[in-house]
């Protein structure tokens, strides 16, 4: 198309955006929006438009409103049951003519609990919203004549936006130019097929949304190609804004554990109702109606005791803390279930480039038809030398010049300099591989800014991981309507497309020996861990059509090989070791050459140098069954395409593995979705891959995956720890209450109010503290647990029952003693307070002892989790206040205890602590014996 060279006068007025943009041509659109094709908007215009149009954000209709969150607190089945208990208890009190204290207190607790739950949940929602902002996409734009990246929310109408494959479009816009741009618009139109877009068409007024091929829309995804777009509408003015759909969300779906907790809640509530029915009906059948009210009292207490009221809140808080800890370690959780299941990962499939390596490329070796030379220099600084024994002035050789031209012309990155007072720093915008090529060409004096104006780009066949190459067609700029196509990509593939080679300034047919020599050189560079690209070109007399790719990328002229160093990340070697000791297998899946892959994999300890590498080509020929057999042995996959990744994940899953898989490209999305934990790259990843992922690596680093896995294990361990803690106590309470009438003691030892106090305060506070327990020393030294295991697996269910029984035995023993003692003492009600106090204090010992499954409490630093110490102290003080402060005593129906009585309670409670420590010692001995 014709690029408009004229620049429209940038006026300060605010443009009219409610136009039918598809009916306008490029020039009209630019004029209305007073923007410039090459320069974009001015700083003043940007400021004015920000004021006029606001930020480019969708008002979130997806989040739950405050009212809904509050309402949900009170419709929780456990709270509904408590309200029912309060009502029954009030009726009983009214009949007896007493003030319904229990009912009032239960209502108060229900309300406080509801408000606390509300505060916690809205905090969790806010935290998720903050996480969402962290993953907010960046957009490449031209502003004030410069190409930069800005946060998508800062876009304004008139901005010139650059699109490429993998981008999720951040605003509505009119195409200014497009190269084979294909956009998936299913979010908007429901149409799964990608639409081919065109800039140079004008459409009738009544074209439907799906037919407006000269426009792009916010929230849709670029599948292929590139384009330059002028932003027409932002924020709520966009098409997606009109239907107020939520995109780019951090999802808040409940985790499997939360779902199981809800189920458990339902089971406990229905079983407690069953219990009430059995006690009341059984009692009435046995003793008639005369003890009905007492029976009802007992059964209400039991019903309250069974239900772990504090548990759901603790689970929610633990998961929220988990996501925050992970973000501190640079792993952003997008889907909450991942927090809990990360610890179960058995296999981590990782890309090489950028995840295992630093993605800071520096060209080291170049091989053209006649020359072989080393390149010096550091980073992206375009200063360095070409060192060769054969030749002193390589930079000016036509062969080398043409290769450097290819490096710059066939390149989408930008090399930019940032001047600081001390020095000039060079950095790149775009793909580091391409950045390294720009730096290399700079060393030969060729820069993109100069070349683009002399040899403008006329067309391209874009890069994709499947094709492993890209081509760009440029005008030769000599006024003769002649063109050149420059191609770069995987050397083997490029070489196959060549039939000639450039030697000095001659194009000669390429011989079999020359081919062999090039392949040997390629292998030599790759086995030293270099990333190698092949280059070729082709003179053309016309610009080919976008569909003519196959035919055009043939009969090329070979230009040379370029080998660049991409050093492994220093921290990855250690992370790989940690993976292995944690029973997790690291696997490398790369698009790069097998020898490069193997060199890096063996340096990092992912594979031994003699292990076999499975290439995409061989994988392609394998049946699913053969692949399933292979995946257990193979640790390095090379030259694979995204579709192979999907097959590898499926094969690993068939072998029972729980797979985490990284991906960055647009076509990686299916593999990321299929993986148990799909991981996208925060820095280099496309928006599409991020959208499909469960977790985003903010630093693209493999070591971060391992760190997140460790956090996942800690979260799961802690959840299990407080479930053990809370449910053990509930079982103890129920058994104690049931035992009282059975062994012939008059009355219920614990009132519903006291039970609620225990479940919410004396169990709740230490449980919250246990949720932040740091990692146990062996957390990454044991194999992963199956994600499908029941929460009660590995002895947890048994532990709860056992501890519940021990709890009850202690409480019942004390109860019998205290009952007799109190009767003799003339204060028949005091035994109840002793039981209440013992149960509470025993839980304190339990909290201290349960911090570790393996270490004795004296071996753990008490201050490694000061919260437990704090919660235990605070709760003990509160419990004492309940006994010794009169208004509280009256309210909670407790009785003053003498120091001896209190001492006896403490003594019994300590037995609980001693028992758990004793269990640990026995367990250790049993383990030692084998
Ligand atoms: P990984 O899969 O580990 O991230 P990768 O970058 O090599 O590694 P792809 O991006 O799929 O994987 O690239 C596959 C191959 O395509 C590369 O090994 C290289 O040969 C070639 N290639 C990569 N980037 C470009 C590019 N910008 N232009 C042309 N060819 C490229």
What is the topological layout?
Blueprint lengths: L25 H7 L10 H11 L12 H10 L1 H20 L4 H34 L3 E6 L2 E6 L8 E5 L7 E13 L1 H4 L5 E2 L18 E2 L4 E13 L5 H4 L13 H32 L4 H15 L4 H18 L2 E3 L3 H5 L5 E4 L11 E7 L3 E4 L10 E2 L10 H12 L4 E6 L4 E6 L2 H12 L4 H7 L2 E8 L4 E7 L7 E7 L1 H6 L1 E6 L2 E4 L2 H16 L3 E10 L8 H4 L3 E10 L6 H10 L3 E5 L4 H11 L8 E3 H6 L2 H7 L5 E3 L3 H13 L4 E5 L5 H6 L2 E5 L5 H6 L2 E3 L4 H41 L9 H11 L1 H7 L25 H30 L4 H20 L16 H19 L1 H7 L6 H31 L1
Parallel strand pairs: 9-22, 9-25, 18-21, 22-24, 23-24, 25-26, 26-27
Antiparallel strand pairs: 1-2, 1-3, 3-7, 4-5, 4-6, 4-7, 8-27, 10-11, 10-21, 11-12, 13-14, 15-16, 16-17, 17-20, 18-19, 20-21
Helix pairs in contact: 3-5, 4-5, 4-9, 5-10, 5-26, 8-9, 9-25, 9-26, 10-25, 12-13, 16-19, 18-25, 21-22, 25-27, 25-28, 25-29, 26-29, 27-30, 28-29, 28-32, 29-30, 29-32, 30-31
This protein binds adenosine-5'-triphosphate.
Protein name: ATPase, P-type (Transporting), HAD superfamily, subfamily IC
Family: Belongs to the cation transport ATPase (P-type) (TC 3.A.3) family. Type IIA subfamily.
Membrane topology: Multi-pass membrane protein
Oligomerization state: single chain
Top-tier CATH class of the largest domain: Mainly Alpha
What's the helical proportion of residues? 40-55%
Average the pLDDT over all residues and give the rounded result: 86
Strand content: 15-25%
Find the count of extended strands (DSSP E, 2+ residues).
27
Pfam families: Cation_ATPase, Cation_ATPase_C, Cation_ATPase_N, E1-E2_ATPase
GO cellular component, one term: plasma membrane
Organism: Stanieria cyanosphaera (strain ATCC 29371 / PCC 7437)
GO molecular function: ATP binding; ATP hydrolysis activity; metal ion binding; P-type calcium transporter activity
């Amino acid at each position: 198309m014709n690029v408009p060279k004229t620049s429209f006068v940038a006026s300060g007025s605010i443009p009219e955006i409610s136009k039918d943009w598809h009916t306008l041509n490029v020039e009209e659109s630019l004029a209305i929006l007073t923007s410039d094709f090459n320069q974009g908007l001015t700083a003043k215009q940007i400021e004015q438009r920000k004021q006029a149009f606001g930020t480019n954000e969708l008002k979130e209709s997806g989040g739950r409103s405050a009212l809904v969150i509050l309402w949900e607190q009170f419709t929780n089945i456990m709270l509904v049951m408590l309200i029912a208990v309060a009502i029954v208890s009030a009726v009983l009190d009214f009949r007896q003519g007493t003030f319904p204290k229990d009912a009032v207190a239960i209502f108060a607790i229900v309300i406080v609990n509801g408000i606390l739950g509300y505060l916690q949940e809205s905090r969790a929602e806010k935290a998720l919203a903050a996480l969402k902002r962290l993953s907010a996409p960046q957009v490449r734009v031209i502003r004030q004549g410069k190409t930069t990246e800005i946060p998508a929310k800062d876009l304004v109408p008139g901005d010139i936006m650059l699109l490429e494959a993998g981008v999720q479009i951040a605003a509505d816009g009119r195409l200014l130019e497009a190269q084979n741009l294909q956009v998936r618009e299913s979010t908007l139109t429901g149409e799964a097929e990608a639409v081919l877009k065109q800039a140079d068409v004008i459409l009738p007024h009544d074209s439907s949304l799906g037919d407006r091929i000269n426009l792009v829309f916010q929230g849709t995804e670029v599948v292929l190609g590139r384009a330059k777009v002028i932003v027409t509408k932002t924020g709520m003015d966009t098409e997606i804004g009109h239907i107020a759909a939520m995109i780019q969300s951090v999802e808040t779906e409940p985790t499997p554990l939360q779902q199981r907790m809800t189920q458990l809640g339902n089971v406990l509530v229905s079983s407690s109702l069953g219990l009430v029915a059995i006690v009341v009906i059984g009692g009435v059948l046995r003793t008639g109606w005369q003890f009905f009210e007492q029976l009802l009292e007992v059964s209400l207490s039991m019903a309250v005791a069974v239900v772990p009221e504090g548990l759901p809140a603790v689970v929610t808080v633990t998961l929220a803390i988990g996501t925050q800890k992970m973000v501190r370690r640079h792993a952003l959780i997008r889907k909450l279930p991942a927090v809990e299941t990360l610890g179960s990962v058995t296999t981590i499939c990782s890309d090489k480039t950028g995840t295992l390596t630093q993605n800071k490329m520096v060209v080291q070796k170049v091989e053209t038809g006649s020359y072989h030379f080393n390149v010096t220099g550091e980073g992206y600084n375009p200063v360095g030398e070409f060192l060769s024994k054969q030749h002193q002035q390589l930079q000016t050789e036509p062969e080398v010049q043409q290769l450097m031209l290819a490096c710059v012309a066939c390149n989408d990155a930008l090399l930019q300099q940032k001047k600081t007072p001390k020095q000039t720093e060079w950095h790149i915008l775009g793909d580091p591989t391409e950045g390294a090529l720009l730096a290399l060409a700079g060393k030969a004096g060729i820069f993109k800014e100069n070349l683009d104006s002399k040899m403008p780009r006329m067309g391209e066949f874009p890069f994709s991981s499947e094709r492993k190459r890209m081509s760009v067609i440029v005008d030769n700029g000599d006024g003769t309507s002649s063109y050149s196509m420059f191609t770069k990509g995987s050397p083997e593939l490029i070489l196959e497309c060549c039939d000639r080679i450039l030697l000095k300034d001659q194009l000669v047919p390429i011989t079999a020996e020359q081919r062999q020599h090039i392949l040997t050189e390629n292998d030599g560079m790759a086995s030293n861990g270099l990333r190698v690209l092949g280059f070729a070109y082709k003179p053309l007399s016309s610009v080919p059509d976008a569909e003519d790719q196959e035919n055009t990328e043939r009969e090329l002229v070979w230009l040379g090989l370029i080998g660049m160093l991409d050093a492994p990340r220093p921290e990855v070697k250690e992370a790989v070791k940690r993976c292995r000791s944690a029973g997790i297998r690291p696997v490398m899946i790369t698009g790069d050459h097998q020898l490069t892959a193997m060199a890096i994999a063996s340096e990092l300890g992912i594979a031994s140098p003699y292990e076999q590498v499975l290439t995409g080509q061989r994988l392609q020929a394998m049946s699913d069954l053969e692949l399933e057999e292979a995946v257990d042995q193979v640790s390095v996959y090379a030259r694979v395409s995204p579709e192979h990744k999907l097959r590898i994940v499926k094969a690993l899953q068939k072998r029972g593995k729980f797979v985490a898989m990284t991906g960055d490209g647009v076509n990686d999305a299916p593999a990321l979705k299929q993986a148990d934990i799909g991981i996208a790259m925060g820095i280099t990843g496309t928006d599409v891959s991020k959208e499909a992922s469960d977790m985003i690596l903010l630093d693209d680093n493999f070591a971060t995956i391992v760190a997140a896995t460790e956090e996942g294990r800690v979260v799961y361990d802690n959840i299990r720890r407080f479930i053990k803690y809370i449910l053990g106590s509930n079982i103890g309470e129920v058994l104690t209450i049931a035992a009282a009438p059975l062994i012939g003691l008059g009355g219920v030892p614990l009132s519903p109010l006291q039970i609620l106090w225990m479940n919410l305060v004396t169990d709740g506070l230490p449980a919250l503290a246990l949720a932040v327990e740091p990692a146990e020393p062996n957390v990454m030294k044991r194999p992963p647990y199956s994600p499908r295991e029941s929460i009660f697996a590995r002895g947890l269910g048994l532990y709860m029952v056992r501890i519940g029984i021990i709890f009850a035995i202690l409480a019942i023993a004390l109860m019998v003693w205290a009952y007799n003692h109190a009767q003799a003492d003339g204060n028949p009600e005091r035994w109840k307070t002793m039981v209440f106090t013992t149960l509470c204090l025993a839980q304190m010992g339990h909290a201290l002892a349960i911090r570790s499954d393996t270490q004795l409490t004296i071996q753990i630093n008490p201050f490694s989790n000061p919260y437990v110490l704090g919660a235990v102290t605070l709760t003990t003080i509160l419990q004492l206040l309940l006994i010794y402060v009169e208004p509280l005593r009256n309210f909670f129906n407790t009785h003053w205890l003498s120091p001896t009585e209190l001492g006896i309670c403490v003594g019994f409670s300590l037995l609980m602590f001693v028992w758990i420590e004793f269990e640990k010692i026995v367990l250790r001995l049993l383990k030692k014996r084998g």
